[in-house]
Amino acid sequence: MLKIRQLLQTLQEIEFAYRRGQTFKVNFATTWQCNSRCQHCNIWRIYIDRPEQVKQEVKLGEVEAIFKNCSRLTWVSLTGGEPFLRSDLVDIARIINECCKIKILSIPTNGLTPELIERKVTEIAKLKIPFTFISVSLDGTKEIHSRVRGVDLGYDRAIDTLTRLDAIGRDFENLSCGFEYTISPFNAGSLKLLIDDLNQRGLVSLVNKATVTITHIADFYRNESLASELDDTFKLKAIEDITEASKHMGRTSLNGLLGRVYLNTASKYLRTGQTPVSCTAARGSLFIDPYANVAPCTMMSKPLFNLRDTGYQLKPELLKEARQDLKTNGCPQCWTPCEAYQSLITNTSFFFKHLLIG
Ligand SMILES: C[S@@+](CC[C@H](N)C(=O)[O-])C[C@H]1O[C@@H](n2cnc3c(N)ncnc32)[C@H](O)[C@@H]1O
Ligand code: SF4
Ligand code: SF4
């Protein structure tokens, strides 16, 4: 009961902040390091080509300077790259929480280092951020997942991570975990097989908190070469997965409810290519990369400015210009949970209408 009241308060806080024009969510890519070899995302190639650039990533003191200056955030997502490859990830979460007293912390992971992730998530859960959500990427059954992600033992490790996190989730009321399935040309149409597999393994509780994502083409993912593969055949198979996922989404967790509405609107996005709801980017939400560049969103990651040049201050006038530019020139249009979920929370009438339709 307390949890539901806290959740409603948090959602209300976000909506009020947005109406007042405040930024309430930051997607912070903590690192470009990555130990996977995915086919739908080429972030892993960044440091293969330029390993010395890892030294340019923000240090803890800079993280503190950045987040002290955005103390009114409610929600931070620590993404990457593989965020758990940052040896100071727990300190990053701690510092952000000290600066902003956030209510929601979300961290996606490829789940390739089960013991390390279990240890760090336990430390992060102790920070008592009310809604701490860890999603482990799982793109199919054993053979499919390992092929999509280019790592032989990738599936076994992701399942090991999910099992460990599911277990520690029982010790911490504030911690929840699920899996994230990204529909790409390499796995489209195979979600049902994965759900059957998870049910057989007794991991059924994870299914109704799943996050389903459609592969997008973006500078962030460095995957321009995939554009021609996102064709009508892909879209039909993706709609099969979306329909399958909709049957399983829960009604009692934040992720389940957001997932439900996201999926109820995803097929239309695939057919029209239009973002279904007005978007919070460059106002309610921002993207910060590992070198302190600020951009409107993960899809448009071309920097607006670098926080190292502004004394780690956000520049409201540059954000205003970016919003104007989005209005005038439009944007690539997207529908990925890391951008869509905050737009759903701030559009309550749209959210409830589409929650009821499903
Ligand atoms: C960029 S990754 C970062 C976290 C971690 N490395 C992982 O793989 O979970 C976050 C999520 O984005 C998804 N993703 C990767 N490429 C994508 C693309 N081209 N379009 C949409 N989502 C994508 C991943 O599958 C993953 O679930
Ligand atoms: S999806 Fe995650 S694991 Fe795969 S290459 Fe991108 S950042 Fe790395
Ligand atoms: S691409 Fe467009 S719709 Fe998607 S998050 Fe960015 S601004 Fe919003």
Summarize the structure in short.
Helices cover 46% and strands 13% of the residues. It has 358 residues and is of the alpha/beta class.
Description of the molecule:
The protein has helices at residues 2-19, 46-49, 60-68, 89-100, 114-125, 142-149, 154-169, 191-200, 204-207, 232-248, 254-272, 316-329, 337-346, 348-357, and strands at 25-31, 75-80, 104-109, 131-137, 175-183, 211-214, 285-288, 293-295, 305-306. The protein is globular, with a radius of gyration of 19 Å. By secondary structure, the protein is of the alpha/beta class. The longest helix is centred in the last third of the chain and has 19 residues, at 254-272. α5 runs parallel beside α7 and α11 packs across α14. The mean pLDDT is 94. It contains 14 helices and nine strands. It has a single domain, classed as TIM Barrel, CATH 3.20.20. 46% of the residues lie in helices and 13% in strands. Bound molecules: S-adenosylmethionine and iron/sulfur cluster (SF4) (2 copies).
